[in-house]
Amino acid sequence: MRRAKGYQDLEDNVGDTRLSSPPMPPPQEIEMASVSVVPDDTFTVTQAVNALGFGWFQVKLSLYTGLCWMADSMEMTILSILSPALHCEWNISKYQQALTTTIVFMGMMLSSTFWGNISDRYGRKTALSMCGVLLFYYGLLSAVAPNFLWLLFLRGLVGFAIGCVPQSVTLYAEFLPTKQRAKCVVLLDCFWALGACLEVALALVVMPTLGVHWLLALSTIPLLIFAIICPWLPESARFHVASGQPDKALATLEQIAQDNGRPMLLGRLVCDDSVGIGQRGRLKHLLIPQLRNTSLLLWVIWMSCAFCYYGLVLMTTELFEGEAGAQGACAADCRPLQTTDYMDLLWTTLAEFPGIFATIFIIEKYGRKKTMASQFVIFAICVCVLVYNGNRTFLTCVLFLARGIIAGLFQAAYVYTPEVYPTALRSTAVGACSGVARLGAMITPYVAQVLLKNSIVIATAVYSVAALLAAAACLALPIETKGREMKDTVSPSG
Q: Would you state the pLDDT for residue 8?
């Protein structure tokens, strides 16, 4: 068989293992209408995934990874509820409240590249399975923490485990056909929004009667379910090919064909040698000449995205609390969140759903770069408007719009990043971006919870400037990935 330049046969006997009866006839004799044949009787994982299309296999994977995403969202949303609750229960200061949030993001930042490396070396499924068990275990222990220091330690370990969650997007994206990839990855954010809404609704029921420790315990239920279903997660076929396990990759592709009711491709599975990075990627490979500009700009974008998103989440409870205090509801130092606060928090959280669907439309029509840039600009305008909040209804509406915009933007970044890197570097790249993002998330509590108390003008100005700088970084990205297949190699031109 003629081989394309740069391709490498992974297994000479793959064709024999896929037809158990007689040996494969010559290529010109294959005329079976029920079997797909690709040029040169060879195919890559990308060609197979595109040919097998979107079906039941991807639907199941959507539910599995979506549950992981929902559990992560609940652990993140609880941060905005945990701080004021601990302030009343343990009389912690504002700086300690901010530290409660920062310690989680510190754990995430320190572990993101670690989990990315584990995922690229040992598989996406292996990393996610470890993550699910650890996240449930440390989350449950947090509920019985006897004092503030123990809680900080355990929440830091929760953050360490959460650092692996972005790898679920990598696994999911690697099984999606090119045409459906952007829509499906953005739709995955529906599970994030669902988790955030569920956490607020749970807090509305649990907090007035059982308190914050029961809220922490009950919030781990989705984590337990995800840990139980991890054995049914499929391993990435791209990972198996990149790690020299073509038989396992073929078995996974045949499972996709069976689940989706599509004919399996005939021929030999081939892949490109990754130029300049070998079979497995390392963190330093993100800065090779072909990828340096992309990596640096994406780090700026991700850090600004997390800084703005989590800043808005934390500001929401602070602004609602300040609004109630200004109205004389309770001007005391300790003011637990009331039912009206939870309801308004739920409304602003629901904004993520229209934000997601708007992003799906825009990202397919105008591309990834322009979508992210325009969303950063709109977010900057919304944050500036918060300075002029006249009443609670106006404040809720502005926060609703800003939350929808920044949620869609975050997911657009999750679409772009796996698309622009090759298979051997994809998990490492997503992990590195996620780690840098947590640096922004670590800083944001001191702006949203501390600086905001002193000057809302300066706090909102900080978020606006960060968003505008990130918008410029989006436009400066060298590659637009709209309609572009996921690559297995790094081309000399990048």
A: 40
